[in-house]
């Protein structure tokens, strides 16, 4: 049985169902809204597994699902050496979002990562602790800042409403995904001119542990 992991709710689920439907696999959610159950028509020995988008990278890496749809950002942040654990089958063309570094708009002298590095050093001297950056993308943010020589900071975990952490004084800056930038502007934040970490979108991945002619045939059938 080939197991396909799909986000369990919202527009991401609906658009994923549409994408597979256009390629001959009809996916439907079954049961009530509290049941994470689904069905696939149009192919034998294929089952649908409904999961949160954040769970799908882990399930792919473990080989508990064979194919999975999730964001580029989630795969690269949650899986160390992700290229050895999953392979990209196809970008799906929706779910676009940019992972960016954003700072208070009132920091008029801070526009680049070099400026942020200088500001972080000054912040530590003035306050006795490191500048806090709120994010849920720890691996991606840490690697990005290290590659640009930014050192005097600490990451603080944020699993929701990251844009509000600066206003609430639990962080001085953030690293989060944005599609339009409107929420950032509404919270008086601006993106550093060179603060783009990753451009993400919904992508179909294959588990490295899942090999065999049946999966090869299914992938070929949907056009890849």
Automatic annotation (TrEMBL):
Organism's domain of life?
A: Bacteria
InterPro entries documented for this protein = ATP_PRibTrfase_cat, ATP_PRibTrfase_HisG
Record-level Gene Ontology MF annotations: ATP phosphoribosyltransferase activity
- Gene Ontology biological process terms, A to Z: L-histidine biosynthetic process
Its pathway, per UniProt, is: Amino-acid biosynthesis; L-histidine biosynthesis; L-histidine from 5-phospho-alpha-D-ribose 1-diphosphate: step 1/9
The ATP phosphoribosyltransferase catalytic domain is annotated at 53-222
The reaction(s) annotated as catalysed by this protein in its Swiss-Prot or TrEMBL entry are: 1-(5-phospho-beta-D-ribosyl)-ATP + diphosphate = 5-phospho-alpha-D-ribose 1-diphosphate + ATP
Record's GO cellular component terms: cytoplasm
What EC number(s) would the UniProt record show?
2.4.2.17
Transferase among keywords = yes
- Keywords, ordered alphabetically: Amino-acid biosynthesis, Glycosyltransferase, Histidine biosynthesis, Transferase
Q: What does this protein do?
A: Catalyzes the condensation of ATP and 5-phosphoribose 1-diphosphate to form N'-(5'-phosphoribosyl)-ATP (PR-ATP). Has a crucial role in the pathway because the rate of histidine biosynthesis seems to be controlled primarily by regulation of HisG enzymatic activity.
Protein name as annotated:
ATP phosphoribosyltransferase
Q: What is the lineage of its organism?
A: Bacteria, Pseudomonadati, Pseudomonadota, Alphaproteobacteria, Rhodobacterales
């Amino acid at each position: 049985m080939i197991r396909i992991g799909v986000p369990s709710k919202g527009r991401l689920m609906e658009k994923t169902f549409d994408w597979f439907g256009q390629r001959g696999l009809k996916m439907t959610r079954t049961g009530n809204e509290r049941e994470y159950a689904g069905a696939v028509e149009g192919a034998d020995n294929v089952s649908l597994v409904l999961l949160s988008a954040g769970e799908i990278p882990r399930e792919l890496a473990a080989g508990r699902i064979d194919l999975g749809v999730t964001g580029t950002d989630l795969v690269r942040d949650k899986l160390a050496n992700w290229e050895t654990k999953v392979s990209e089958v196809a970008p799906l063309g929706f779910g676009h979002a940019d992972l960016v570094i954003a700072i208070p708009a009132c920091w008029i002298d801070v526009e680049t990562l070099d400026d942020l590095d200088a500001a972080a050093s000054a912040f530590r001297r003035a306050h006795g602790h490191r500048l806090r950056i709120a994010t849920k993308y720890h691996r991606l943010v840490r690697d990005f800042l290290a590659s640009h020589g930014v050192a005097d900071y600490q990451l603080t975990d944020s699993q929701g409403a990251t844009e509000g952490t600066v206003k609430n004084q639990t962080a001085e800056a953030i690293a989060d995904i944005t599609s339009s930038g409107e929420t950032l502007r509404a919270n008086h934040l601006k993106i550093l001119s060179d603060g783009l970490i990753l451009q993400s979108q919904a992508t179909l991945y294959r588990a490295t542990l899942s090999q065999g002619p049946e999966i090869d045939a299914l992938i070929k059938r949907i056009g890849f």
